Amino acid sequence: MGKGTLYGVGVGPGDPELVTLKAIRTIEACRVVVAPRARAGSSLALSIVRANVDLTCHEVVEVPFAMAGEDDARDARRADAAALVVSRLEQGLDVAMPTLGDPAIYSTFQRIAAAVRGEGFTVRQVPGVPSFCAVAAALDADLTPDPALPVHIVPALCRDSLREAADLSGTVVLMKAGGEAEALACALREAGVLERTQLVSNCGRPDELVLRRLDAPDVPDRLGYFSTAVVLP
Length: 233
Hints:
single chain; Cobalt-precorrin-4 Transmethylase, domain 1; CobI/CbiL
């Protein structure tokens, strides 16, 4: 009996219609689907898969993961998930792990994949639509108006990242920009880029929110975890 293969499958940012044909075919061919989810609630990635694939004959496992800042718990959850995947691969079963956006960009999948590779198993990646590309479409924005200028992908988890955005040429994509809207707006104002920043929360989902200005009176107090901001040149 041969060993199974782990597939990291990008399923896009939230709209089930953005899942690629290759992603669908890969998941259909795998006997096991392991889907990450927050400790509370269901897996968004899995719900996107279910909108495209009949999983009746698959083994489906939702694996809870700790959030940012809970390092010990997060490491333990990753180890548990990797052990689960390895146990199925040892049985010769292929495993699909759907991940939001693309598996190469800020993906939980990469932490699991590293552990699985370390055990001698093969890992493959199926690309998906990155969130910032879908956000650009929602904003009808050109991320590369000047082909000579770069596009920067920056995690908006701390104010230092936002300050650095002011010093970068070209377009700056701020990933994971959710949280207190007023705090984000203040940090962007201090960095001198507030007027050039637009944001989309829950892109591609029924509750998608497009904000052309983060200091507008109708901006909600809190922005969802799946929020991406774009600082245009």
